[in-house]
Design brief:
The protein has 288 residues and is α/β, with parallel strands linked by helices. The chain contains 9 helices and 6 strands, in the order βαααααβββαβααβα. The protein has helices at 38-48, 51-58, 69-74, 76-79, 88-92, 160-172, 189-198, 227-245, 263-285, and strands at 14-15, 102-108, 111-117, 137-143, 181-187, 253-257. Strand 2 (102-108) and strand 3 form a beta hairpin. Helix 6 packs parallel to helix 8 and helix 7 crosses helix 8 (227-245). The protein is globular. The two termini are 19 Å apart.
Length: 288
């Protein structure tokens, strides 16, 4: 079985493993934390607990602030220690913005996967199609918690979640991808839960149609989550799935709620994705 697979936020190729698979990745400069003077760490800790800074942080949706800021600033006293070693969660919370397409090759259970991460910035979208030859499936990642944020590279203040809906619609209806399975990751559920449960930024303020939305009966079965959070995540899912049912296409969308920092969640989702990818390969190899 041999056939590559992309992702519009990433992509895939499943094929037999080779003896020495290559791995191409962008190398980034790492700053040695020991290069910072003690005054830097002292000032950071003092500033972070300042009431004015905390007020500004609560209004973080009004400016561009990495979503991992609080996590690392809360851990300044630990990170500054000479014997500090990053934990698994520390590594998972690091963010590096991709500025060009990157290929990652890895093997799971003797099956080789090629994943292409196509940069999500607007100025990179014209290059996406070159990654879509011989693909098996597309991973589309939606930052669900971005409903109250604007794009960093948008002068007109485009809403991040609305832009995700727009890009998904463009890809779903592309004539080049009519038979490609789409694996949808509704990501950052942990941050969506925090925002909705805090009541500081109602989803209806940015998507008025949410006010009349009713949680499907099957959604809350057995869940101990905040009902308003459940309603919010299924509303976002529903907005995407409406796109998939509005057009006569031959591909299938497989939605998943994910949190990148929850390793058990990602492990279960990935196991399901492997089955979808292999099934898609068989279907694509079958003559029409």
């Amino acid at each position: 079985m041999r056939s590559p697979v992309p992702h519009t936020n990433g992509s895939f190729t499943v094929e037999p493993p080779r003896e020495s698979p290559s791995h191409s990745a962008e190398v980034h400069h790492v700053v040695d934390k020991d290069a910072f003077p003690e005054e830097f760490w002292d000032s950071t800790e003092i500033l972070w607990i300042d009431a004015g800074i905390q007020t500004a942080y609560r209004r973080r949706a009004e400016f561009q602030l990495p979503d991992n800021s609080k996590y690392f600033l809360d851990r300044t006293s630990e990170i500054r220690r000479p014997d500090y070693v990053p934990s698994e969660q520390d590594v998972l919370r690091v963010r590096i913005q991709s500025s060009k397409s990157m290929e990652t090759i890895f093997t799971v259970d003797n099956v080789r996967y090629n994943m292409f991460d196509v940069a999500g910035q607007r100025d990179q979208r014209g290059k996406w199609l070159q990654c879509f030859n011989n693909i098996t499936a597309i991973f589309f990642v939606v930052p669900a918690s971005g409903y109250n944020l604007v794009l960093q590279d948008s002068e007109e203040g485009t809403n991040r979640l609305a832009e995700s809906f727009h890009v998904f619609n463009m890809l779903w209806n592309s004539k080049w991808l009519t038979r490609k399975s789409v694996i949808l990751f509704l990501n950052k559920m942990d941050q969506l839960r925090e925002k909705i449960s805090s009541g500081q930024a109602g989803l209806e303020l940015f998507f008025p149609e949410f006010q009349a939305y009713t949680t499907p009966s099957y959604a809350s079965s057995g869940s101990t989550d905040d009902p308003e959070f459940i309603r919010a995540k299924y509303f976002i899912r529903n907005e995407i799935m409406k796109i998939t049912t509005a057009s006569n296409t031959q591909h299938v969308c497989y939605p998943h709620f994910t949190s990148a920092i929850d390793t058990e969640n990602i492990r279960k989702v990935f196991d399901g994705c492997r089955e979808i990818i292999q099934r898609s390969q068989i279907q694509q190899a079958t003559p029409l």
